[in-house]
Amino acid sequence: MTKILIIDDHPLVRDGIKTMLKDEPSLQIVGASKTAAEALDFLATEIPDIILLDISLPDMDGLQLCEKIRATNKYSKIIGLTSTNEAGIITGLLQRGGDGYVLKNMERSELLESIHTVLKNKVYLSAAANDKVLEQFQNGKPGKNSAVLTRREKEILLLLADGLNGPQIAEKLFLSPLTVETHRKNLFRKFNAHSVQLLLKIARENGLL
């Protein structure tokens, strides 16, 4: 029996995957986590065969979580599950120990193919993801990791672009100033920026604003 853990914050995605796999007697969904924290708690005591990992989670980006899981778990196969088809993110996942990459609009047959492929110790990329990686290398742009932001980081980035400061963002999002400052520091780290001005400049250059 192949044991599967789903990590995705969208109930429709989790339920959709469960529906896709419910008639497969050799596959068993043993957990469905909404956040990275929930997933790490689960993985502290369980080792599933397959981890279907959303790249954009509310509390940690999927690339970071993949790296964190792989640091202590060499056994589970990790398949990135996302609506984002960017070469930098695809290669970033593979560099951090991921085994596959599929898009959320996949058909049931492709999900099953991806699972069976990685179980054979092979890498699986959806056709669209494979084309994106090939295009990157054909253009002479070897894999540069794109910053993957959590939903909260995206909200804060947009509010910084609107000219709001930390306390104003905290009030608008009903967060503590310390929480906002933590997210700001994470944004600076991900974009290798030392000021809000530079952060916004890099974000615009990468099409995030």
Give the end-to-end Cα distance, rounded to a whole number of Å.
45 Å
The side-by-side strand order for the widest beta sheet comes to 2-1-3-4-5-6
Tell me the β content.
Answer: 5-15%
Helix content: 40-55%
Q: Tell me the number of helical segments per DSSP (H or I, 4 or more residues long).
A: 10
Number of strands: 6
Based on CA inertia axes, which overall geometry fits? globular
Give me the strand/helix succession: EHEHEHEHEHEHHHHH
Q: Quickly give the structural class.
A: alpha/beta
Q: In this structure, how is the largest beta sheet organized? A: 6 strands, parallel
Mean pLDDT: 87
Poorly predicted tracts of residues: 140-145
Rg over CA atoms, rounded to whole Å, is 18 Å
Describe what this molecule looks like in 3D:
The chain is about 50% helix and about 15% strand. Strand 4 (about 75-80), helix 4 (about 85-95) and strand 5 (about 100-105) form a beta-alpha-beta unit. The radius of gyration is 18 Å and the shape is globular. The protein has ten helices and six strands, in the order E-H-E-H-E-H-E-H-E-H-E-H-H-H-H-H. Strands 2-1-3-4-5-6 form a six-stranded parallel beta sheet, sandwiched between helices. It is α/β, with parallel strands linked by helices and about 210 residues long. About 35% of the residues are buried. It starts with a strand and ends with a helix.
